Amino acid sequence: MASGFRFSKRSEHALAGVHDDLVRVARRALELTEVDFVVTEGRRTEARQRSLVAAGASRTMRSRHLTGHALDVAAWVDGGVRWDWPLYPRIAAAFKAAAAELGVAIRWGGDWPRFRDGPHFELDRRSYP
C-alpha cells in the first residue's frame, strides 16, 4: 500500500549527486513507510565533511556522503522534523524492505554498535566500493 508521501523540493535537491540505486531505495521507502521523512543531506563536499568532523557530528573523512553513496533523513511528523529515536527504526524498516525488493545492499547507521546514526543510510561497501 502506498503511503501517499512525496518528497519536497528540498529533499529532491538533497538527492542530487546521490547514487541512482540509493535514490531508488529512498523513493521506494517513501512509498512503503508509515513515518514520513525528508532527505536532509546526500552528497557532501570535502569542506562540509571536514566541518562536521570538527563539530563532532561525524567521525570520519571517509564518509560515504563524499562519494554520493549515503544520505541522511529526518522524520517529518505533524509538519516538523522530529528526532525521537523510536521513529527511526520504523523508517529503517521501510528502507530495508525497499532495498530487499530492489536488490540493493544497504546499511543503516542505527544498526552500528558504536556511534549509532539513526538518520543515516548508505550503500554497502561490499557491493558498492
UniProtKB/TrEMBL annotation:
Transmembrane segments: none annotated. GO terms for molecular function: peptidase activity. Residues 58-123 form the Peptidase M15C domain. InterPro entries: Peptidase_M15C, Zn_M74/Hedgehog-like. This is Peptidase M15. It comes from Marichromatium purpuratum 984.
